[in-house]
Write a structure and sequence with these properties.
- The structure holds two protein chains of two kinds.
- Chain A is 91% helix and 0% strand.
- By secondary structure, chain A is mainly α.
- Chain B has a two-stranded antiparallel ribbon. In chain B, strands 3-4 form a two-stranded antiparallel sheet.
- The longest helix of chain B has 30 residues.
- Chain B starts with a helix and ends with a helix.
- Classes of the chains: A mainly alpha, B mainly alpha.
Chain lengths: 85, 232
């Protein structure tokens, strides 16, 4: 069961990675990175479930907050970029 | 409880998968954003909730609930910021997009361009009359309407020429030669839609129909004339 869930999540992560690689615009990559962050949080939960070790949940919490801050930073950067030109 | 938790986790992983498929397949950044953010947030929240159900009132379960709360708040905010940032950075909408409400430019409607004095013809008129009308008015096609003004078809130069190859133009009625495969649009549709019809299909004029009645017509020439006036 865990193997199956891990497989599906890994497939989703590869799809997100494909979008990060292919772009075409920086915004597409930023969106995909945001999504990847949320997927990784889910993945941490599955690892925690599979290994029975709690500290992966701490990783999940901090990852979700850091991904948020990172995405906001990228979004603000993109927003400012339009005005420079 | 464990089974219920696992079921929630499996449903969550599938939400994640479908969200990323949306990320992969949709045409522009805004579509990708709306498809993937909602699905993946939902999916990961389900995974976290499933884990909380699975492990009950343990420290890990509480952490999962806290994490779920964080994601529910942060993910839509981040998505909104990204959409705004992309728009400001000038990322274009996909070609299929119908309207852009954020844009400063007013969306042009077909009603601004269309020719309201439509010259129409009845289906029982003779083909000879149609030919005379085409030549007299210097136009290339006539919408065929019944006495109520309801569109039945269209007769164009091309239809008449085609009819001449297999029928007798002198005795024929408009009904026999008209083309019933007509592309129509409502007057409220954006001009962009009309332009895409003209550029992609072999129609030279599009009758504008409201509630079944012909209220106008736009030919390719009308668009060119409009472009000329717009320049002034």
């Amino acid at each position: 069961m865990i193997e199956f869930i891990t497989g599906v999540l890994l497939l989703s992560i590869f799809l997100a990675l494909y979008r990060i690689g292919m772009g075409p615009t920086p915004s597409d990559r930023a969106v995909a990175i945001d999504i990847l962050g949320i997927l990784v949080v889910g993945f941490c939960v599955i690892i925690s479930l599979a290994t029975g070790r709690d500290f992966y949940m701490n990783v999940a919490i901090s990852w979700s907050l850091l991904a948020f801050i990172g995405t906001i930073a990228i979004a603000k950067y993109l927003e400012g970029k339009g005005f420079d030109e | 409880m464990e089974v219920a938790g696992l079921i929630l986790i499996v449903i969550g992983t599938f939400f994640d998968l479908f969200g990323t498929i949306g990320l992969l397949r949709l045409p522009d950044v805004y579509n990708r954003l709306q498809a993937s953010t909602k699905c993946v947030t939902m999916g990961t929240c389900l995974i976290l909730f499933g884990f909380a159900v699975y492990s009950g009132f343990s420290p890990a379960g509480i952490k999962a609930l806290i994490c779920m709360f964080f994601i529910l708040i942060t993910s839509p905010t981040a998505a909104h910021a990204l959409a705004k940032g992309s728009y400001r950075a000038g990322v274009q909408l996909a070609n299929q997009s119908v309207c852009d409400l954020y844009s400063d430019k007013q969306v042009l409607k077909i009603s601004a361009v269309m020719n309201r004095d439509v010259i129409t013809i009845l289906p029982d008129a003779s083909l000879r009359q149609a030919i005379d009308l085409l030549v007299e008015k210097g136009i290339t096609g006539l919408p065929v309407v019944d006495s109520e003004g309801v569109l039945l078809g269209i007769i164009t130069e091309k239809d008449i020429i085609e009819y001449k190859t297999y029928g007798n133009v002198e005795t024929a009625k408009v009904r026999d030669a008209m083309n019933i495969n007509v592309q129509t649009l409502p007057p409220s549709a954006p001009l962009k839609e009309l332009v895409s019809i003209f550029s992609q299909e072999d129609f030279r004029r599009v009758p504008i129909v409201e509630d079944g009645r012909v209220v106008g017509i736009v030919s390719r020439k009308d668009i060119i004339k409009f472009l000329k006036e717009e320049k002034k």
